[in-house]
Each structure stands twice: as structure tokens, then as C-alpha cells.
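Quick one, probably user error.
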């Protein structure tokens, strides 16, 4: 079975509609469904003078989108996801902020999406926004902002090196295509 199957078949249908007259007038919004990923990665931990930390890392995963469209069990699409991230951590205030830039590869790399995300929260899960900023192939012109939740745990190894594990999910992944 291919690791990279269809990311969002419906996106292809929307792209196919781009040739119609009414599709040229405005972007088409697409509610893709529930999406999730498990993160794994590595990075560096830098201690700050105030007791906080800044962590620079790259996390990778497979984004799984469950598009139900009324069907029992729904349709599942996948894409590779790679995100350089920066985490600012303050254990004293029980706060963590994340900033990430993601590259999303679907359909054997033929469709590429770009996104950025920001979230803030306690030391556990954070809540924020995931914004599509562009793409190529079937994701050309992709845009939209959708709610996003994540948790990434860092295990400090030797020196400043760290290992990252965690997850992210999008309760209703929504995109717009021209």
C-alpha cells in the first residue's frame, strides 16, 4: 500500500471545477473533515536567563484526513507533513507558545501545500490557528485558516539535543481553493 495516498480527493474535484465560469469569480471553500497527525522529530533546547527555554526543532508526521461526506466510515486521505518549529516555554507561568512552518506533500509529491501555525497554551495541549499560505500542483492557490490543537513533548538528550514526540489535530480542516 502506498504511504502517500490521496490527501483530499475533494480538493481535486474543486480544482477540476476551476475551469467553470462561477469558479473563477471566487474561491471555493472546502470542509475536508477531521484531520490528525502524530509528530516525531528532533531539535535543540536553549535555556534562557529567566528560567524559560526556547526549543528549535523539526517535527514530521503523516496527516490523516477523515472526510465523511455522509458516508459510513468516511474516506481517508494522507499526506506527508514536515514542520520546522520554535517553542517558547516558561514553566514558572505554565505557558508554552509554538510557531511552525509546514510543507505538506500529497499524491507522491505532485501536490505541495504550505502552511504556518501558531498556538499557545499550558504545558500540555495548545490551541491556535493553522493557515494555508500557498502551494503548487493541485494545492496551487490554497488558502484558509482553521482551528488547530497540538501537543509536543521534548525529551532532553545530551548537551542541548532533544527528541520530540506529540500529536496535532484539526477538528474540521477547512481550505479555500481558487
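Nope, works fine. Designed sequence:
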Amino acid at each position: 500500500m502506498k504511504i502517500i495516498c490521496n490527501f483530499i480527493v475533494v480538493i481535486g474535484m474543486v480544482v477540476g471545477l476551476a475551469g467553470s465560469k462561477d469558479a473563477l469569480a471566487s474561491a471555493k471553500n472546502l470542509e475536508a473533515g477531521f484531520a490528525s497527525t502524530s509528530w516525531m522529530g528532533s531539535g535543540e533546547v536553549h535555556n534562557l536567563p529567566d528560567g524559560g527555554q526556547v526549543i528549535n526543532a523539526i517535527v514530521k508526521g503523516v496527516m490523516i484526513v477523515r472526510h465523511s461526506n455522509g458516508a459510513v466510515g468516511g474516506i481517508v486521505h494522507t499526506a506527508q507533513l514536515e514542520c520546522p518549529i520554535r517553542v517558547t516555554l516558561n514553566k514558572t507561568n505554565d505557558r508554552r507558545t509554538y510557531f511552525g512552518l509546514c510543507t505538506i506533500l500529497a499524491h507522491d509529491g505532485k501536490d505541495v501545500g504550505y502552511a504556518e501555525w501558531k498556538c499557545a497554551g499550558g504545558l500540555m495541549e495548545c490551541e491556535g490557528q493553522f493557515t494555508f499560505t500557498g502551494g503548487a500542483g493541485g494545492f496551487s492557490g490554497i488558502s484558509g485558516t482553521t482551528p488547530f490543537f497540538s501537543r509536543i513533548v521534548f525529551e532532553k538528550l545530551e548537551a542541548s539535543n532533544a527528541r520530540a514526540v506529540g500529536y496535532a489535530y484539526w477538528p474540521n480542516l477547512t481550505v479555500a481553493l481558487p
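The longest helix spans residues 9-16.
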